[in-house]
Amino acid sequence: MKKHDLRIERTRYMLKNALIDLLEEKNVESITINMLSEKAMINRVTFYSHYKDLTDMLEKLAIETVNTVRENLSAYEDDSHNWNNLINFLTHVQKESRLYKLILVSNKLPGFRNEVLNIIETKIYNGIEQSKDTKNKDIKLWYESSAIIGTIVCWLKEDMPYTPKYLVEKISEIHFSKF
Questions:
Q1: What is the C-alpha to C-alpha distance for residues 7 and 158, in angstroms, rounded to an integer?
Q2: Cα separation of 66 and 71, whole Å?
Q3: What pLDDT does 81 receive?
Q4: What percentage of residues in the chain have a pLDDT greater than 90?
Q5: DSSP code at position 101
Q6: Taking the CA of residue 34 as centre, how many other CA atoms within 13 Å lie in the half-sphere pointing to its CB?
Q7: Would residue 167 count as lying in a domain?
Q8: CA 62, CA 86: separation in Å to the nearest integer?
Q9: CA distance 143 to 172
Q10: Residue 30 has what DSSP assignment?
């Protein structure tokens, strides 16, 4: 079993935050390793001991983000109305809000956005597929995925004025109301 080296974790954390800082100011194409290293307060050699290049860093960050999204929504397909999973996911989004604003709001990382949206849509699709109601499943998928994703995007744009729990309670009320 590999032992976690806190220095490695700290350096990667600093690099991730430096990347987020830079992406809030610039497009990914204009970010250099020098800029990133300087912002993270490390030297270039340290960067290259962790990643081959910026593309490698972005790919690893994408994998980490996608895996975390999957973990947070993992039980959603077991129960299409298991709102606790959505609370867990929104709590994660709130904790990593700067990253998710880049992914979902500003679309500065389009590959990330598509992956995250596909995971959410797949979880909703799996819940709908398990439903006893067989009518208009495609329309339900369009509606539910648009509602959830749109709500998350607006929540992020507004700097998350509600707690994840409160937001999910309101989503649930709307979901089950007959309007």
A1: 35
A2: 9
A3: 54
A4: 55
A5: I
A6: 1
A7: yes
A8: 20
A9: 14
A10: G
Beta-carbon contacts of 61 under 8 Å, excluding residues fewer than 6 positions away, are 16, 19, 112
User: For residue 145, what are the domain limits?
Assistant: 75-176
3-state helix, strand, coil in the chain (%, to 5): 75, 0, 25
User: Does some domain include residue 159?
Assistant: yes
Please, are residues 32 and 25 in contact by the beta-carbon 8 Å criterion?
A: no
Q: Considering Cα of 111, then 118, then 103, then 45, what sign does the dihedral take?
A: negative
How do residues 26-84 score in pLDDT, each as one tens digit? 999 999 999 999 999 999 999 999 999 999 999 999 999 989 988 888 754 444 456 88
Nearest alpha-carbon partner for 17 in 32, 46, 37, 44:
37
Total domains in the fold of the chain: 1
Residues in the chain: 179
**Which residue is listed with tokens 């007959």?**
178
Cα–Cα dist 164/86, whole Å: 8
Q: Where are the alpha helices (DSSP H) in 26-136?
A: 33-40, 44-50, 54-72, 83-95, 97-100, 110-129
| Mean pLDDT over each residue of the chain, to the nearest integer | 89
69 touches 44 (CB < 8 A): no
**Residues 57, 115: Cα–Cα separation, whole Å:** 17
> How many CB atoms within 10 Å of residue 79?
12
